[in-house]
Amino acid sequence: MLMTMSEKILAKASNKSSSEAGEIVMGEIDVAMTHDLTGPLSVESFEKIGTDKVWDPNKIVIPFDHQVPADSLDAANNHIILREFVKKQEIKNFYDVNQGVCHQILPEFGHVVPGEVIVGTDSHTCTHGALGAFATGIGSTDMAMVFSTGKLWFKVPETIRFNIEGQLKENVYAKDVIVNIIGKVGADGATYKVCEFAGNTVSDMSVSDRMVLCNMAVEMGGKTGLVEPDEKTLNYIETRSNKPYEVFKTDLGAPSLETIEIDVSNLEPQVACPHNVDNVKPVSEIDKEIDQVFLGSCTNGRISDLREAAQILKGNKIANRVRMLVIPASKEVYTKALDEGLINIFVESGALVCNPCCGPCLGGHVGLIGPGEVSLSTSNRNFKGRQGSPEGEVYLSSAAVAAYSAIKGRIESI
């Protein structure tokens, strides 16, 4: 039977020889992640179930990343709830306030390998599909059942395979590719489908760039994003993890597979405009002054993003009316940026460098915008009120466009 990657992974997880789109399966979970914002509700629901012990304390990962350090009494209380849960349940993989964004540190610490089923109480858990895992976001109450049983029901999804071809122009990046695709497909164009990214353009991308693609699959309604593991994937895995893994690839004749051809040869930098991620325009068509630039998040807070931005900012000053926040996605990224002198470049240009965390991405921590203000962000969502006031505006771009715009005081590209 011809199957897609996701069908093969879910068949394995449900101890079946095959699965097909539309089928309901009970899958065994390999990694379950919750964080400081959604975790307390999972803990509360777990305690209501009445199970004394979690199914496997070695397979649960709990990072603090959304409101760290605690910015309110509620946040501090959430941290206390999870610390007590970690201690009581003897959770082995607990990352306190100094490690970074969950979707960055899970791969860094070797929790993600090909062929696994990974669930997280965060919609951007789909990021981990870049390493060939079926990774998806679930609700906090669903996570309580995972904590208790180690299993979860799944409806096996259909797959859209985006076959991306062409060499990217200078100053065009993975962020531009995925934003352009979302603009074409629409915010609901891939609802409950696997968004599989393939083609020569993807083969040429680094693992970090592939994570950008998979991270934003959910912004077109996708259940997850996936990239077939290759030599780059396995090299990354083998330096990070000692877990066993199995590589799955899509059979191109699978009945549930739809293929969309994408040519990016002539693509220019793209920007998602307020207030929806699929409201996409080329940067050349935008004329907008900005108040704030946010460089960071689980989409574009990696070392490659910081390098791109620093190269543009070096020797330049951020525009007087603009404030720029730089938030590395993890402690590892922060340390590399320190070692390479990138932090000095950011500070000398006038940027504010913050601790590794989600920052203003979720509108719940540092760097919120006020009424009438405009934010240019390298994150993944620009919904009304996402980064502060519902009367503000959020535009999304690559790290390069964000850095150059910070200098110019308006949305522009080199």
TrEMBL record:
Cofactor requirements of the protein: [4Fe-4S] cluster
One protein family per Pfam: Aconitase
InterPro entries tied to this protein: Acnase/IPM_dHydase_lsu_aba_1/3 (IPR015931), Acoase/IPM_deHydtase_lsu_aba (IPR001030), Aconitase_4Fe-4S_BS (IPR018136), Aconitase_4Fe-4S_dom (IPR036008), HAcnase/IPMdehydase_lsu_prok (IPR011826), Homoacnase/IPMdehydase_lsu (IPR006251), IPM_dehydratase_rel_enz (IPR050067), IPMI_cat (IPR033941)
Reaction catalysis annotation: (2R,3S)-3-isopropylmalate = (2S)-2-isopropylmalate
CDD domains linked to this entry: IPMI
Note describing how the cofactor binds: Binds 1 [4Fe-4S] cluster per subunit.
E.C. numbers: 4.2.1.33
GO term, biological process aspect, one: L-leucine biosynthetic process
Keywords linked to the UniProt accession: 4Fe-4S, Amino-acid biosynthesis, Branched-chain amino acid biosynthesis, Iron, Iron-sulfur, Isomerase, Leucine biosynthesis, Lyase, Metal-binding
Record bears the keyword Transmembrane helix: no
Pathway: Amino-acid biosynthesis; L-leucine biosynthesis; L-leucine from 3-methyl-2-oxobutanoate: step 2/4
UniProt: [4Fe-4S] cluster binding residues: 298, 358, 361
GO molecular function terms attached to this record: 3-isopropylmalate dehydratase activity; 4 iron, 4 sulfur cluster binding; isomerase activity; metal ion binding
Keyword Mitochondrion: no
PROSITE patterns, sorted: ACONITASE_1 (PS00450), ACONITASE_2 (PS01244)
Top-rank EC class of the record's enzyme: lyase
Domain Aconitase/3-isopropylmalate dehydratase large subunit alpha/beta/alpha positions: 7-286, 287-409
NCBIfam families: hacA_fam, HacA_Meth, IPMI_arch, PRK00402.1
Complexes and interactors: Heterodimer of LeuC and LeuD.
Functional summary from the UniProt entry: Catalyzes the isomerization between 2-isopropylmalate and 3-isopropylmalate, via the formation of 2-isopropylmaleate.
HAMAP family recorded: LeuC_type2
Family that this chain belongs to: Belongs to the aconitase/IPM isomerase family. LeuC type 2 subfamily.
This protein's name: 3-isopropylmalate dehydratase large subunit
Organism listed in the record: Candidatus Methanobinarius endosymbioticus
Organism taxonomic ancestry: Archaea, Methanobacteriati, Methanobacteriota, Methanomada group, Methanobacteria
